[in-house]
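Tokens in:
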């Protein structure tokens, strides 16, 4: 009788969709992934809309999908098809991660051009002094500021930390007046070579882990990233201003 009761309960739960797969063993999944690369470490693990498929965020910032038994691995974007079209669930997660990581960066580690009057939005831009489109966008920062948009620059030397662009960014970050130094550098002036404790290399690596491949890379308040130059007028429309 007791066995029948258990069976009946299981059937009822199954019909009502309440049966849940057991949570996967994160350590076991990490060991499985480390068969590919011993350096792999799982930062977080969460369920997806697909049964027994879990989203894995690695310590490197990469996102993967893995079966609960660790036998199947998916690399790429998870898309949901609905009445409103296609939703990129992977990019939604990346945006959340990106937003949190960038919010944690202290203002003093960025080059900030404050909004005029009340701040309506804050955007962060990965920039490179030697990038023509970064220079073009910088010329429109006053227009953004006048519309209530605070612009915060992050360093992203496209050619790496051994490049001339890296030193140019260090010169800006080490200046007593970073805003003035940024204006001068993007105006074509050569700044005095400087050295100090600075976040340029760290921000470059963070940008790479977030999928930044070139500059400018504009990060909106919701964490969505816009690769490349966008005119101020169009950017304001995207911000709803």
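Residues out:
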């Amino acid at each position: 009788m007791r066995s029948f009761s258990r069976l009946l309960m299981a059937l009822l739960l199954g019909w009502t969709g309440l049966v849940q797969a057991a949570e996967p063993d994160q350590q076991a999944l990490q060991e499985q992934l480390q068969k590919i690369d011993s350096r792999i470490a799982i930062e977080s693990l969460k369920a997806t809309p697909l049964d027994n498929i879990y989203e894995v965020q690695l310590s490197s910032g990469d996102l993967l999908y893995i079966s609960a038994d660790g036998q199947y691995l998916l690399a790429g974007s998870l898309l949901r098809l609905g009445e409103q079209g296609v939703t990129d669930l992977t990019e939604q997660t990346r945006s959340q991660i990106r937003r949190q990581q960038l919010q944690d960066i202290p203002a003093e580690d960025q080059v900030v051009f404050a909004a005029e009057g009340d701040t309506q939005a804050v955007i962060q831009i990965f920039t490179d002094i030697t990038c023509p489109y970064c220079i073009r966008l910088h010329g429109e920062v006053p227009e953004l500021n006048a519309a209530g948009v605070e612009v915060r620059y992050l360093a992203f030397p496209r050619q790496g930390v051994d490049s001339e662009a890296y030193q140019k960014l260090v010169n800006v970050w080490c200046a007593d007046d970073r805003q003035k130094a940024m204006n001068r550098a993007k105006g074509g002036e050569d700044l005095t070579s400087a050295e100090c404790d600075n976040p340029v290399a760290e921000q470059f690596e963070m940008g790479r882990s977030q999928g930044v491949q070139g500059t400018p890379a504009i990060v909106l308040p919701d964490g969505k990233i816009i690769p490349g130059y966008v005119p101020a007028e169009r950017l304001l429309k995207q911000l709803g201003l």
